Amino acid sequence: MGEKEGYRKIIHVDMDAFYASVEQMDNPELKGKPLAVGGGGKRGVVSAASYEARKYGVHSAMSGMAARRNCPELIFVRPRYDRYKEISTTIRKIFFEYTDLVEPLSLDEAYLDVTENKKGNPSATLIAEEIRKKIYDQVGLTASAGISINKFVAKVASDYHKPNGQKTVNPEEVVAFLEGLDVKKFYGVGKVTQAKMYQMGIYTGADLKAKSLEFLTANFGKAGKHYYHIVRGIHHSPVKPNRERKSLAAERTFSENIASEVYMLERLQSIAEELQKRLKKSGVAGRTITLKIKYSDFTIQTRSKTLPYFINDMALLLETAKELLYQEKMKNSVRLLGISLSNLNTANVDKKDKKEIEIIQLKFDF
Q1: pTM of the shown model
Q2: Does 150 or 187 have the greater pLDDT score?
Q3: Are the C-beta atoms of residues 148 and 119 closer than 8 Å to each other?
Q4: CA distance 199 to 14
Q5: What is the set of active-site residues?
Q6: pLDDT category, 364, cuts 50, 70, 90?
Q7: Which domains does the chain have, with CATH numbers?
């Protein structure tokens, strides 16, 4: 990477069809076949799709039924998150061989700042090649990478030669690279924003760059300022090795719509149990409990309550969730319920807070 003084060297590593690739690796009979990780039933949702399935238009967040319509030969497998986490941990150890500035975005992708690195290698491009080879040699899976001067350009670049490829965008190439891209390739521009931009005649980065800051903020609000800067290659967000978790949640989609509050309470108990497990595993507590309700017409409602103390106890989670459930009458039958805990104590819990958490738990031990 032809660096200039003052530029950072950022790598975005993205595993190729991670969940599906793990399943194909662990079960050779699935290799080369259209595969979806998730549920294929009436309420199932695709969590990930193999590249063979993607050729049929199968993608994550698609309903299982729609996926089967697109690809009748589609094979569904249940997700094994413990296995994915195990492999992800191995991959992250490889990242840390090169730098401590690693910002995981999920189990299958992360940013690395290798401006100063443990190998003393001045080439971010060669480091990315090394990392991808090590992942393949140690884990057996392929990864793609994007290399550039900031996180935004690196993330966009990592998708450029997928699967099993990489793209370096040198400092002097950034603006031309972004100008030539379709705006739908810009990380953070979703389908709704893409459609709106297309209606305004904004199809490429060059079209976007031609619009004034005033025009973009008038039409896209605060995001307009963001678009104005990123299309010029300006993105100052550093790689944050300790990304603070904002919330933890658990939710369930039901095979049949539920109209009875008695059944809802039963489901809430199992959801609260699952959430408590996740909280204990993460070693965090929080103060704001939110109940998420998705109705049969797909509208979503949330109801929240903030407590004066931190909790991570199932009894208190359930008690507050019940209170929120009865806060007002249901608008319709319900297809999904979820509980989340935010306002977390992840920002260096002090001794007083830790003691308070212990007291809250002890109150409910009997």
Answers
A1: 0.71
A2: 150
A3: no
A4: 31
A5: 109
A6: very low
A7: 10-15+82-173 (3.30.70.270), 18-80 (3.40.1170.60), 180-230 (1.10.150.20), 247-363 (3.30.1490.100)
